[in-house]
Amino acid sequence: MLNIDQDRMEQIIQEAFDRVSGNRRWQTAIVKANRQIEENPYMHFDGSALLILSDSGEIYSANGSCQCRAYQEGFPCWHRAASRLVQCYNEILHE
Ligand SMILES: [Zn+2]
Asked: Which of 6, 44, 65, 87 stands 20 to 30 A from 93 (CA)?
């Protein structure tokens, strides 16, 4: 489980939504990523990538890329969204 301050994460989610400007697939990915960050105990940021044990039992290592089906088919996936959110979150912490 990641140790996340929800108020700070809310702000990052909002910025993420602004950035994808109406792209429905990314919006869906961000919403799911946010829920997983709150609820999924099997997430670990190793300093460059976010390691995720997903619902399907697969372990993904996500940063700019991912190993899941959606990524292979060229679609946004929540793993990458989660990775990005956590990285933005960490950057804010270190400002
Ligand atoms: Zn993925």
From this structure: 65
Give the gyration radius of the chain's Cα atoms. Answer: 12
**CB burial of residue 81 (10 Å; 0-12, 13-18, 19+):** buried
- Which sequence spans correspond to the domains of the chain? 6-93
Taking the centre of ligand 1 as the mean of its atom positions, its distance from the CA of residue 36, in whole angstroms, is: 13
Asked if pLDDT for residue 55 goes beyond 90, the answer is no
A 10 A CB-CB count for 36 gives: 20
Task: Using the mean position of ligand 1's atoms as its centre, give its distance from the Cα of residue 6 in Å.
Answer: 23
